[in-house]
Design a protein that fits this description.
Blueprint (H helix, E strand, L loop, with lengths): L4 E5 L17 E7 L4 E2 L8 E7 L4 E9 L17 H7 L5 E4 L4 H9 L3 E4 L4 E2 H13 L4 H9 L15
Parallel strand pairs: 2-6, 6-7
Antiparallel strand pairs: 1-5, 2-4, 3-8, 4-5
C-alpha cells in the first residue's frame, strides 16, 4: 500500500504541483498537527503538517499536507512492511524546521538526512505561538544551530570557509 499525500493550499489556479517557492529571506517551517490549530502531534501520528514561510516580521501560510496512513502514538512500530515515514519526509522536503511533540530515532535520521531540522516541543501549543517563538529567534541573536540552518537555506550569509582564498 502506498501512502497518499494530499496538499491543501490557498490558490486560485486549477492545478497545483509541489509547494510554492519560498520568498527570499523566509524560513519554511512545518508543524505537526491533528487539527490545523495547534502543534499537538508526534511526527509519525500527525494527520497534518502546516507549512508556513516565516520572517522576523511576518508569517505566511503555504499549505497543509494531509496523511491518511499514520502511526499510533504507542511508540510501537507496525511490522506490516508499509513505510509511513519516507512519504512524510519526501512531502516535507521544502521545510527547514519541523516542530513536533516527539519523533523516533529512525524518523529523525530520515528528517535530518533530508536537511530538515527537527525540534521536539515539550507540550501542545497554538500554531500562532510556534510562529511567534520562531520570529523571536529570528529577530534576536539566533542560536548557532539556527544560524547554520539559515545559512544552508540561503536566508543568511554563510561564514567564509577557512580554506577560502583571502586576499
Amino acid at each position: 500500500m502506498t501512502a497518499t499525500v494530499r496538499r491543501l493550499s490557498l490558490v486560485t489556479d486549477a492545478e497545483r504541483g509541489p509547494a510554492p517557492e519560498r520568498p527570499a529571506g523566509a524560513l519554511r517551517i512545518a508543524i505537526a498537527t491533528q487539527d490545523m490549530k495547534n502543534l499537538n502531534a508526534h511526527f509519525g501520528s500527525a494527520r497534518f503538517f502546516a507549512l508556513y514561510d516565516v520572517t522576523p516580521e511576518e508569517a505566511r501560510f503555504v499549505e497543509a499536507l494531509a496523511f491518511d496512513d499514520v502511526s499510533a502514538e504507542t511508540g510501537e512500530h507496525k511490522t506490516d512492511g508499509d513505510d509511513r515515514i519516507t512519504p512524510k519526509v519526501d512531502a516535507l522536503k521544502s521545510a527547514h524546521l519541523l516542530f513536533c511533540l516527539a519523533i523516533g530515532g529512525p524518523s529523525a535520521a530520515k528528517v535530518v538526512a533530508a536537511k530538515i531540522h527537527p525540534i521536539k516541543v515539550p507540550g501542545e501549543s497554538p500554531i500562532s505561538e510556534v510562529i511567534a517563538r520562531t520570529q523571536t529567534m529570528l529577530k534576536n541573536a539566533p542560536p548557532p544551530w539556527l544560524r547554520k540552518v539559515l545559512a544552508e537555506a540561503g536566508v543568511a550569509p554563510k561564514k567564509p570557509d577557512f580554506d577560502d582564498d583571502q586576499e
